[in-house]
Glutamyl-tRNA amidotransferase (Candidatus Curtissbacteria bacterium RBG_13_35_7), 126 residues
Amino acid sequence: STLRLLISDVKNAEIAKGEELTDEETTEVVQKKAKKHKESIEAFKKAQRNELVDKEEAELRVIDKYLPKQMDKQEIEKVVDEVISESGVNSIYDMGKVMGQVMAKLKGKADGNLVSGIVKSKLNTK
């Protein structure tokens, strides 16, 4: 049933767009679905609804199989360092500029919150 819902979400996005989705757009749809499951898991944990946590985690494992492999922290740090040195940025006020360039390079291969934390820590040490 998880796959059926995922396929349905992709088809709905195609209908909304009016044409077939690109691979990147399809990945975005799958990532949004995974994010919703992660949020549900957190909410169910807070409510101590372990049976629902187990169900959501099982569905998330299925969804994760269809996502590109996520980069680890060291790989992300390397990309962030490259962008910072290439752009000559040295202030936390330029975080948006750095984030835009980094996320464009990573294209769905890294969690935005993790990238944001790394960029923030790198710019705060400058």
Summary: The two ends are 49 Å apart (CA to CA). The helical segments are 2-17, 23-46, 50-64, 73-87, 95-106, 112-124. Residues 13 and 21 are 8 Å apart (CA to CA).
